[in-house]
Design a protein that fits this description.
By secondary structure, the chain is an alpha/beta fold. The chain is built from seven helices and 14 strands. Strands 1, 2, 3, 4, 6, 8, 10, 13 and 14 form a nine-stranded mixed sheet that branches. A three-stranded parallel sheet has the order 5-7-9.
Length: about 230
């Protein structure tokens, strides 16, 4: 017999990136971060900024999990939020009701959060735009949720095909959101140096007229031999 889940399960995050680690990702394109991670880390492509002009953010992930048609967990996350957090609300892709609206996002901003990300829908686009608060979702719906639970805040979630835990870094821009696991932050920062250099070299060569990249020639030579 499965026992009923508690209405709320909260865990106060016990790890947090340093200010220097966070600063290392400011103004870095999400594509560069993905390359530094080895080709992954981006949330599902349907999770996009509600207001394209308000897409850029870097912050510390504060995950919460909402049951379908319910957003009690997001309100619980407000009690854990610190300055610089990104509230990441997993709704298991449910799109029948909004996970948040402009007033709830205004509360998140007042709590110090710098962005909101969900794999569900939100509402009140005009009000969200007025907040100038980055919000990523899979769509818009005027349907409103209940606040009954159960839900979790501060515990790991799976959102957009990626595991998100408290203390991970979340980076967003027009192309989407990338999650950098806490234990890989320093490694990713080191790799970003090489990614930037490689991108700059290739961009310069393309502007100079490059048609076929160097790695193609050896592959063609192997095909000729066979």
């Amino acid at each position: 017999m499965i026992e009923d889940a508690p209405v709320l399960a909260l865990h106060r995050p016990d790890r947090r990136p340093s200010a220097a680690q966070i600063a290392a990702f400011v103004d870095v394109p999400t594509g560069f971060v993905v390359d530094a991670l080895g080709g992954g880390g981006a949330l599902a492509p349907e999770i996009k900024p509600v207001v394209a002009e308000q897409a850029h953010f870097v912050g510390v992930a504060l995950p919460c999990h909402c049951r379908p048609d319910d957003n009690l967990a997001v309100f619980a996350a407000l009690t854990l939020a610190k300055a610089g957090d990104v509230i990441v609300a997993a709704a298991d892709g449910y799109r029948g009701a909004a996970v948040a609206g402009d007033n709830l996002l205004g509360m998140a901003r007042n709590a110090g959060a710098v962005a909101f990300v969900t794999d569900g829908c939100v509402r009140d686009r005009k009000g969200i735009a007025a907040l100038e608060f980055p919000c990523f979702a899979t769509g818009l719906t005027p349907n409103s949720p209940a606040r009954k639970g159960p839900g979790t805040a501060g515990l790991p979630v799976v959102l957009g095909g990626v595991v998100v835990a408290s203390g991970d870094l979340a980076i967003g821009d027009e192309e989407g959101v990338v999650i950098v696991p806490f234990v890989r932050i320093d490694e990713t920062i080191r790799r970003l140096v090489g990614v930037r250099e490689a991108e700059a070299v290739l961009e310069a060569r393309v502007k100079a007229g490059l048609v076929v990249p160097d790695f193609i020639a050896p592959l063609l030579a192997e095909q000729t031999k066979s």
